[in-house]
């Protein structure tokens, strides 16, 4: 009889501890990063709501300034699209991780920071717009 009462008391105590642990987790905001995602901290700049052009360039690159102007113009025409330029010479670790072998190289990230397209070399405006289509439009939310 006493053994049953002790078992019930232990079960009630464990249930109470579980309840308080569970309640402490409710409503807690946690950042979720998808594996392989490029975070704003890694980029050094905020990402776009729909897409981000991440351009890797170097100081000696002749086509990089023109590519930057083109990508900034395309990004400015599209809502929720940004352009981030990264100096591959300064961020050699990131360039190696992403297998950047030449400049300009542009990665197109979706809203989660996942690479959905890549352009090696200087793109045309049509190629930049085509690459942007790989990043889907964010869903419209209505309340």
Structure notes:
This protein is an alpha+beta fold and 143 residues long. The protein has a domain of 93 residues: Glutaredoxin (3-Layer(aba) Sandwich), CATH 3.40.30.10. It is built from five helices and four strands, in the order ααβαβαββα. The chain has a four-stranded mixed beta sheet with strand order 2-1-3-4, with helices on one face. 25% of the residues are buried.
Brief descriptors of the model:
single chain, 143 residues, alpha+beta, Glutaredoxin, 4-stranded mixed sheet, 5 helices, elongated
Short description:
This protein has 143 residues and is an alpha+beta fold. The protein is built from 5 helices and 4 strands, in the order ααβαβαββα. The longest helix has 24 residues, at 2-25.
Helix and strand topology:
Blueprint: H1 2-25, H2 40-43, E1 51-57, H3 64-77, E2 81-87, H4 92-97, E3 105-110, E4 115-120, H5 125-132
Parallel strand pairs: 1-2
Antiparallel strand pairs: 1-3, 3-4
* Overall geometric form: elongated
SSE ordering: HHEHEHEEH
> Structural class of the helix and strand makeup?
alpha+beta
Q: Give the full name of the CATH homologous superfamily of the domain at 40-132.
A: Glutaredoxin
Name the beta content range: 15-25%
The radius of gyration over CA amounts to 24 Å
Spatial sequence of strands, sheet with the most strands:
2-1-3-4
């Amino acid at each position: 009889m006493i053994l049953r009462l002790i078992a019930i008391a232990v079960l009630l105590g464990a249930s109470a501890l579980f309840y308080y642990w569970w309640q402490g987790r409710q409503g807690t905001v946690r950042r979720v990063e998808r594996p392989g995602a490029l975070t704003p901290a890694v980029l050094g700049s905020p990402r776009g709501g729909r897409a981000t052009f991440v351009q890797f360039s170097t100081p000696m690159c002749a086509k990089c300034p023109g590519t930057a102007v083109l990508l900034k113009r395309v990004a400015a025409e599209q809502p929720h699209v940004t352009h981030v330029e990264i100096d591959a010479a300064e961020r050699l670790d990131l360039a190696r991780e992403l297998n950047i072998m030449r400049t300009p190289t542009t990665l197109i990230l979706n809203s989660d920071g996942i690479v959905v397209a890549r352009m090696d070399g200087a793109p045309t405006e049509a190629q930049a717009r085509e690459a942007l289509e790989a990043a889907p439009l964010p869903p419209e939310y209505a309340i």
